[in-house]
Amino acid sequence: MEAGGRLAALSFLLSVVFRSCVCKIDPAQIDPLLYEEQLLWVSGAQGEVNTYRIPLLSFTPKGSLLAITEGRKSTAGDVGAKFIAVRRSTDKGATWAPTTFIVDDGLQPDGLNLGAVVVDEEVGSVIVVYAICFHLYQCRPASTMMVESVDDGLSWSKPRNLSVQLGVKAFAPGPGFGIQKRYEPAKGRLVVCGHGTLEGDGVFCILSDDHGQNWYNGAALKSIPYNQKKKAKDFNPDECQPVELTDGSIVINVRNQNNYHCQCRLVVRSLDGGLSLPVEGLYFDYTLVDPVVAAGALQKDGVIYFTNPANEQHRINLTLRWSVTDGKTWDKKAVQIWAGPSGYSCITSLSSGSAEDRKYIYVIYEKGHKDYRETVSFAKIHLFGGR
Ligand SMILES: *[C@@H]1O[C@H](CO)[C@@H](O)[C@H](O)[C@H]1NC(C)=O
Ligand SMILES: *[C@@H]1O[C@H](CO)[C@@H](O)[C@H](O)[C@H]1NC(C)=O
Fold this sequence. Notes:
There is one protein chain. Helix content is 5%, strand content 44%. With 387 residues, it is mainly beta. It has one domain: Neuraminidase (6 Propeller), CATH 2.120.10.10. The protein is globular, with a radius of gyration of 20 Å.
């Protein structure tokens, strides 16, 4: 082959390898293997933190991984003063830098609550959205806050109060990740979904079309009765995780707080980039049995992945499922990640499109022997059985 031809062939090969693609995966190839696991945080083991809870996991535009969690200062409860703790890995989860505390709410009686991490790949930033004074315990009003990193998670901005733009409302983002739309409609939009107070509950999404400068209120799927004390079995959508499908729709997997209709997950879909969540599109996923908890979800190369403690009563049995039919059906070969106590979870993957990055997903979850709040654990999953 003459030099020009070789160059053309090489550049074609490189473009195939490095193009980020929606490559079809043969369903039979998926055979997830727990490849390695390590504890990132152990509750009670370090200085001023009583309990680490609500772990989030994200990729960064430069291919690092960020693990983000609440450091609850004096109790394990949701109310109380906290830090936001971060650890960072630049080698695909093999090693992790020591913890840095990026937000400290001082001694607030009703401090911060995580939260959602959202990556803007167009400008290369990482944003963490969280609530303060969400429970209105000895404080008022609740505020929605954000911090931002433009250097791959090394340093973080001062907290900014998004309630100035959004209006005052108790909003608890996530827990999990927000998305940046990769497909039309509204390509490039940041979509962060979360829930309201226990009475004024429901799924609510906030949106930004300018990389997080300005935020506005998008879709709402309200609980029934709204703003009234709930009874058992009322319709009460709560903590949620959105993923974007390759057709540009957003599917949100939601905690069914009062076990309305089933002890399982409820699913709702937005066709307009997070502006609305039509109730006609809502369904209950009977396969995804759930003890009422925050779960993890991810769309990668056209496959949906889902993690939760797969048990109707107890937070045990952290299980990974996958679907090659956009969540309509789930593969029968579910993989158990941890049989014992397990709580909240979050999934991410690196998005370079390289052959290496297509092989793995990463899961962070609350894990224990007697109680799921004992540790926060990181699991690297090989999707093709180590092959
Ligand atoms: C955030 O902004 C809202 C609306 O202006 C305000 O009511 C609230 O007190 C602010 N919160 C904080 C922590 O400054
Ligand atoms: C754990 O999850 C698997 C997969 O769904 C299920 O078959 C099994 O019964 C579950 N075990 C417990 C103890 O919940």
